[in-house]
């Protein structure tokens, strides 16, 4: 599966009501580390069946960023059953993201 | 068996890979995170010859493509150890072991932290090490920058156009940063300079609310801020190699302009080496020197 772009309109369906756990990548076009993280996220989306990976552009989706208190990007938030379970900030290695996603 | 393994895909490591490939050597670049290194945090590079303006991301991506096009292999694995087996070196990552004839360590550096007790838990809740990433979250708010080098002053300048008020806290009364940047910053009306002072406490409930700033003379001041941008320098990432090569007290690799370490066949390039000027152009310069000397070493084996 590829990374799904999520806005406030489909956030509930794609993230909160997802059957699988969801890794949300909060990012922006002007953020270098976010751009570096994207190919890793794309790879993981192709490789992993146990997680849905979504991208949220904080410039367009400032309401979502504010709701989830995102004030540092790149910011990865793992949602399980509609609840935040883990969070990581900054550019991190693929292995660490795999650890966040878990089995 | 590779001819040369390069640890780190920042400007130094990738330039070394270019030179090594052009000398017809087989090259593996191992990188823990993603290519580009520290420069990806820079919005606009204005001091690299030829390009008047280029973003750190574009610079890194061009360099990465150039390196790949020349036939270097780039693998994203973190190097945890290097073993010196004489004419062969063994490079150990979290996933694999690779053999080669020469190694170039170009691991660069990571952000130095303030060292305050609740600093880690406030990252993303008011504490940031990347103004260009997080500045936009502080539109119309009050922020402080701590540090006195180029990064700190560029951060303050960038933030002064976004935030309503910027405090620049520096432990001395003069800056290490380029004079042009200092002059630009002094013209900004919403920037307040706090000299001879350090941040000694972070006050927070859910988020950072204020910082305690202590002056050399002992006076203490509490400043309400929404965000604190930390730019107090970098720490070289050489810890994993300390048993193999000599480091100085600050952790930098003891190597001169020839980029040779104290271990035969192990070279270094970029910010993790002892040097005066840590800039993009000196990092790429190191890459060329380290690769050239590594090639010479291999040819004489």
Q: Portion of residues in helices of chain A?
A: 25-40%
Number of helices of chain A: 4
- Structural class designation of chain A: alpha/beta
Number of helices of chain B: 6
Largest sheet of chain A: 5 strands, mixed
| Helix-strand pattern of chain B | EHEHEEEEEEHEHEHEEEEEEEH
Number of domains of chain B: 2
Low-pLDDT windows of residues of chain B: none
Question: What does the model show?
Answer:
The complex is a heterodimer of chains A (103) and B (301). The longest helix of chain A is centred in the middle third of the chain and has 16 residues, at 32-47. Chain A has 103 residues and is α/β, with parallel strands linked by helices. Helix content of chain A is 35%, strand content 28%. In chain A, strand 2, helix 2 (32-47) and strand 3 (51-57) form a beta-alpha-beta unit. Chain A contains four helices and five strands. Chain A has a five-stranded mixed beta sheet. Chain A has one domain (4-101): Glutaredoxin (3-Layer(aba) Sandwich). Chain B has 301 residues and is of the alpha/beta class. Chain B folds into two domains: 2-111 and 234-299, 3-Layer(bba) Sandwich (FAD/NAD(P)-binding domain); 120-230, FAD/NAD(P)-binding domain, CATH 3.50.50.60. Chain B contains six helices and 17 strands. In chain B, the strands form four sheets. In chain B, strands 1, 2, 3, 4, 5, 6 and 17 form a seven-stranded mixed beta sheet that branches. A five-stranded parallel beta sheet of chain B has the order 8-15-9-10-11, with helices on one face. A three-stranded antiparallel beta sheet of chain B has the order 12-13-14, with no helix packed on it. Chains A and B meet through helix 2 of A and helix 2 and helix 3 of B.
């Amino acid at each position: 599966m590829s990374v799904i772009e999520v806005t406030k309109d489909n956030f509930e369906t794609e993230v909160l009501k997802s059957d699988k756990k969801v890794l949300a990548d909060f990012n922006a076009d002007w953020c270098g580390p976010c751009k570096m993280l994207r190919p890793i996220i794309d790879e993981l989306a192709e490789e992993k069946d146990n997680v849905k990976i979504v991208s949220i552009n904080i410039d367009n989706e400032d309401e979502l960023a504010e709701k989830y208190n995102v004030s540092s990007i790149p910011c990865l938030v793992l949602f399980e059953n509609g609840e935040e379970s883990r969070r990581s900030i900054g550019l991190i290695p693929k292995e660490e993201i795999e650890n966040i996603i878990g089995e | 068996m590779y001819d040369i393994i390069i640890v780190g895909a920042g400007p130094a490591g990738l330039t070394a890979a270019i030179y090594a490939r052009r000398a017809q050597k087989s090259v593996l670049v191992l990188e823990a995170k993603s290519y580009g290194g520290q420069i990806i945090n820079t919005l606009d590079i204005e001091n690299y010859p030829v390009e008047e303006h280029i973003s750190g991301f574009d610079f890194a991506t061009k360099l990465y493509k150039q390196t790949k096009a020349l036939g270097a292999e780039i693998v994203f694995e973190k190097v945890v150890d290097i073993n010196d087996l004489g004419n062969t070196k063994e490079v150990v990552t979290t996933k694999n072991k690779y053999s080669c004839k020469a190694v170039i360590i170009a691991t660069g550096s990571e952000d130095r932290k303030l060292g305050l007790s609740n600093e880690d838990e406030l990252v993303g809740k008011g504490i940031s090490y990347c103004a260009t990433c997080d500045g936009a979250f502080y539109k119309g708010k009050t922020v402080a920058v701590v540090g006195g080098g180029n990064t700190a002053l560029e951060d303050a300048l960038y933030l002064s156009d976004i935030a309503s008020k910027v405090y620049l806290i520096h432990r001395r009364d003069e800056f290490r940063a380029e004079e042009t940047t200092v002059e630009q910053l002094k013209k900004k009306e919403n920037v307040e300079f706090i000299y001879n002072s350090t941040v000694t406490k972070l006050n927070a409930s859910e988020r950072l609310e204020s910082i305690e700033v202590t002056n050399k003379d002992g006076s203490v001041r509490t400043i309400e801020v929404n965000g604190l941008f930390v730019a107090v320098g970098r720490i070289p990432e050489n810890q994993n190699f300390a048993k193999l090569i000599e480091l100085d007290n600050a952790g930098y690799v003891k190597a001169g302009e020839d980029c040779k370490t104290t271990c035969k066949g192990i070279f270094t390039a970029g910010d993790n080496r002892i040097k005066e000027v840590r800039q993009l152009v000196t990092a790429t310069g190191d890459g060329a020197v380290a690769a050239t000397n590594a090639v010479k070493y291999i040819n004489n084996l």
